[in-house]
Design goal:
single chain; about 120 residues; alpha+beta; 4 strands; elongated
């Protein structure tokens, strides 16, 4: 990765449920796509479809999915986010909830009452 690529901020879309992290995908800046076309370079493509993630979350509501977009420093990779969830999943989820932008959430905030 070049210094120029490392210096630009990146945005990731992160999806997890009650069982842990399910997916991480980088959201490609439209300007980067435009510059790639103008420079006759391969156009970067996103490796996920956010609508598919949202449908999965809606139809599996019992799993309490959360989908967030989070902007990070250019040195952070998808693997770094996966490692963060593997090391301390609660910290990772809380950090992304605090600093990210919620796209979808079925998060339970109250415990079910036992009657």
């Amino acid at each position: 990765m070049s210094d120029e690529e490392e210096s630009r901020p990146r945005t990731f879309c992160v999806m997890w449920d009650c069982n842990g992290l399910e997916a991480v995908g980088e959201i490609i800046d439209p300007a980067m796509k435009t510059w790639a076309v103008l420079a006759n370079k391969p156009v970067p493509r996103e490796d996920f479809n956010i609508q598919h993630w949202q449908l999965r979350a809606r139809y599996n509501s019992q799993r309490c999915y959360e989908i967030y977009a989070i902007g990070v420093d250019g040195t952070i990779t998808q693997e770094d986010i996966r490692d963060m969830f593997e090391t301390d999943p609660q910290y990772a989820a809380d950090l992304i909830r605090a600093r990210g932008e919620r796209i979808y959430s079925d998060r339970r905030t109250k415990k079910d009452a036992i009657t």
